[in-house]
Amino acid sequence: MMIAAFVPAATAAPPRHQQGVFESIASPKENVNRAIVLGFYAALNRGDLGHLDRVVRPDLVQHHPAIANGRSAFRAHHAGLREQNPNLRFTVKRTIAQNDLVVVHSHFVGKAGDLGVAKVNLFRLDRGKIAEHWELNEAVRPQGIGNDMFSTLSSPRISRSLPFSTDAESARVGRAAFDEIVNQPDDELRLKALDRYIGDNTYYQHFPDVPNGTEALQQFLHAAYAARPDYRANVKTVVAEGDLVAVFVHLEKLFDMENGVGADLYRVRDGKLLEHWAVIEPTPPTSANPNPMY
Fold it and tell me: Do 250 and 263 contact (CB within 8 A), yes or no?
């Protein structure tokens, strides 16, 4: 099970900003943790697997089902990935850092011309080293009626966390998205919650094949409950930084998927949801480690 969410006091004031220049939202320790994780991605892109020995604990706790526990298995996994894809590239789209957790939303492309994979990775750091790792993957689909899976469309179109919400407020709204919207089987009550947490704002949607707006979200959830009345998304971990929040959930009976895990990222403003990105991965029948994906 993922560790409980970290939520600071709701009274904490957001940092100041002037003329589009924003002060850091994260603490010095959180920024150090983020830099360590971003350095990990830079090393993967240049094929420097020896860097993993410097930033990953030998006893790494692994939750990705394709990889066994431990640093050596993690390194072997990435060595195999590079052998299959010599020109691979991880492009980090956005990060969220809170306490000892860092969330990375990235686009992986193995070969030129491939659509690639949308990834959300969660890292727990301990004294400057990666101690625990979760990972979700979803193949990028050709853009259909919705938006692409990575861009930022809400204003300002900056992908990093911004000081337009406190960590606590974003975490509260991220949880409410599931408690009062996603997990609400009653259409009428869900519509009231959609008005409460989105209202007249444009809701930019990056979940494949679902267009912008509350009507499309309402239709998607109505279809989910019509197909499987016992559908449920159980919140496991919430990580927030400024106006960005990541919510990790255990999914049960979503359409034809019996079990899976989802990572939903939201942008929050004035207590409302502005934008949504998601990566969903079914739970495989076997795992190389004994730890749950969530």
Answer: no
